[in-house]
Amino acid sequence: MREPYTLRRLGDLARAIAYRQALIKHECWPRAKLEELQQHRLARLLDWVTQRSPFYRELCSTHRVSQSYSLQDFPIMDKKTYMQHFDEIVTDPRLRLSQLQKHMAHVSGDEYYLGEYRVLTTAGSSGQKTVVVFNRKEWSIQEAASMRIAAMMGVVPFSMRRPTIVTIGSPSPLHDSYRLPLSMDIGLYRFHVLPATALIEELVQRLNSIQPHMLRGFPSMLGLLVTEQLQGRLHINPSIIAGGGEPLPSELRKQLQAAWESSVFDIYGTQEGLRAMECNPGQGMHIFEDLGIVEVVDEDNCPVPDGTLGHKILFTSLFSFTQPVIRYEISDMMVLAPEPCTCGQPFRRILAINGRNDDVLYLQGRAGRQVAVHPVHFWNVLESFADIRQYQVVHEPDGICLRLMFEEGNGNTARTVKEQLARKLHALGVDCPSIRVELVTTLEDRSRHMGKWKNIISNVNQSMQ
Ligand SMILES: [Zn+2]
Fold first, then answer.
1. Of 13-27, 36-50, 111-125, 274-288, the least confident
2. Which end of the chain has fewer surrounding CB within 10 Å, N or C?
3. Residues whose Cβ atom is located within 5 A of ion ligand 1
4. CATH topology (fold) of 361-458
5. Distance separating alpha carbons of residues 290 and 448, to the nearest angstrom
6. What is the residue extent of each domain of the chain?
């Protein structure tokens, strides 16, 4: 008979607490010992996938890869190719993309799939949706990594009386920022997830009543909230602030520190299991290299030296055995620190990253004053269309221009996109501007933007008037 749900969840969390103890030990290891651990875990992973994953088994027999594989013998995977081969890549033949999609349509909480898997999904700025599956042991490692992040910020279970943590993000259980707290919610912390798509007035009201010890969200959202605090509508006093999902500009960090006299941390993470976190504010983010390998490469996939800006990264998860993630292309451009950190951790640090760097648009409201429209509202609409390959929203003095690039060059969806966006802006209290659609076959390459790709661009004004 299968264990009841609560027991299984508690079992997962107990395992996570044990893993966390192991992770803590790695933080004071010398670099050479960490690299040895990485090589050991990598060898186990590659051995496993060449036996259990039809995709990698086939690849090894076709290319006659010798038993002493190195990571570079394995192909680089972009998101599109990865999802096309999903059913052959996974190591459990019961996992089929079409079935997982049916399951995801009905997930409302922390449900297991087939009694043992948790399923997440992402919609990146390229419009390519991905699906990520973790078994219970792998999920416990995710939970342990999440506890490590909390501990690095000073939030340790039992050290404070049930700290209240508010995340402003996706209220979907298919996103790890919501699912992880949900799966770990056994009373150690008080978690609240507020939807990033809510009206700012609503967020202010909820935050005033919750009074969080810790606040997490997109840096641009934290920027809107600090304005609310400075203008006297928001009255909170969090001691820890964490930004993630976008770059955290140093100006904003200073503003947040000054307004709330709090520690402000920058966090980096992907749903596939890559995590990085600052040891001290402003020191750069340590990549959790005991759980993954990051290669920073140029446009031709050649490694770039530490201290140099790469064009993208290739990520290999050292703990994902159900759904192997090997040399998986992530389009973030980053610079790794050439020197070890003074804190003594053996993990390399991300010094700079150019991920999403979208503008907040200030649009004329129906009630007279301007409405600050966070990029999340545009992502929400534009990224819900599977056939939009890439897009840009540009705020011009005469209205909004939507540049859309479709998967098959077919723009039938364009009208629906325009209507949905107009409805969304109306709901936010915006006096809807004219929306013009341009169908394009290419959008400027991100490298031409000084490494700063923007989906949402304001050519009008940069702040609330
Ligand atoms: Zn450090």
1. 111-125
2. N
3. 279, 283, 341, 343, 345
4. GMP Synthetase; Chain A, domain 3 (3.30.300)
5. 34
6. 361-458
